[in-house]
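Explain this fold:

***
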Amino acid sequence: MAGLLTAGLLARNFERVTVVERDGLEDTPTVRKGVPQGTQTHVVLKRGMDIAAAIYPGLLDDLQGHGAQALDMALDGVWHVAGVWRKRVSSDVTLYSMTRPLFEWRVRTMLAALPNVRILDRHEVTGFLHVPDGTRITGLKVRAPGSTEETHLEADLVVDASGRGSRTPQWLEDLGYPRVKETRIQIDVGYATRLYHVPPGFDAGWRSLIVSAELPTNRRFGTIIPVEGNRWTVTLCGWLKDYPPTDHEGFLAYARSLAQPHIYEALKNAEPAGPLHSYRFAHSQWRHFERLPRVPEGLLVVGDAFCSFNPIYGQGITSSALLAEAVGECLLQGLDGLSRRYFARAGRLLKVPWMLSTTEDFRLPELADLRSFGSRFLYWYGERFQQLTAVDDAAVRTFMEVMHMLKPPEAIFSPGLFWKALTRRPVSTQLPRRPEPLPVPVSKAA
């Protein structure tokens, strides 16, 4: 997705844009080998979808025309967090919910329709073209898998969107550049996801359902989100190798073990729409290109090739969109010095999503040594603020705006919210199994 969004933006600025893709691409919403997490639940936060829609006008209508579901996360869904059920209010934060293959297919279709874009699939990149002293990248060497014949693609700008397996750090070292420093946070997150048919007549009063983990004690998370084809995408997840099973009974038992049983109640009589798929994510990873003392001209890095986060927080595609937007803004000053301007700006942009995801992961005692000064207060206040969302409309809306990267994290510390979080009457964490006003999930005859 980082490559598709960046390519769409670059098509406005360059005579020709070539997208090199190792996989063979089909004109259907299919899971690709190069996207091993493509079977898992994906979300695009509102900030990311706003950027995508600006790059591809008409995208939102196109997605809905192909079955994507539009829902207000605070009004249409129920969310259990910090021992409470978050209050349901209108937030004006719309989530467009669909499977990852559908989203990728529709964006790629719109990209391919641009007259100055060529998609070269079934080809892999084998290295950079560059000037003799390595100070400027001038294109790529590519070849078809299994072939020994290389093709040279000349370019004024090369953008690496090849994901966590990017070879750019090694290729830069080969050109005499310093090793790119990395930060890794070992979290060993494991997912299992399955599509289900929505039971005929099902009406539990919600469209989406999230049961958050309660770190550090309960390390299990689950969600039900509606997608195209009148289906649910259901994901269960655990930290530090507390992986959900991939057999039917084990999957249901894991759902029942969450902080609340509502996902299990919804699934126990639902018909699966496909097999269970697992995915494991060992570590969050930030390659600090922004810290390099020098970088070659003509080279940018976006998406997971730059920084990849714990996927449980749904920040990946939106962070990629923010980097694509940064590319466009840095291009306004021309190609000279573009690489240095972009990497500096990207490094600043990535601090917020990185902080949001890693701070939560550091609740785990196994990662306590990585906590920053003041984290104990942040965890205490965060718990109070989340409990405030059970009763306070402004707290819910502010949380949604921060989560969707529409406001900075500091917004939850506004004087009014800070005072209410500190002085409000604490909410009991011992809630009924089916708390009101959350309806009990039931299935009605069609």
Residues 222 and 435 are 18 Å apart (CA to CA). The two ends are 39 Å apart (CA to CA). Confidence is low (pLDDT under 50) at residues 428-438, 440-446. The chain is about 30% helix and 20% strand.
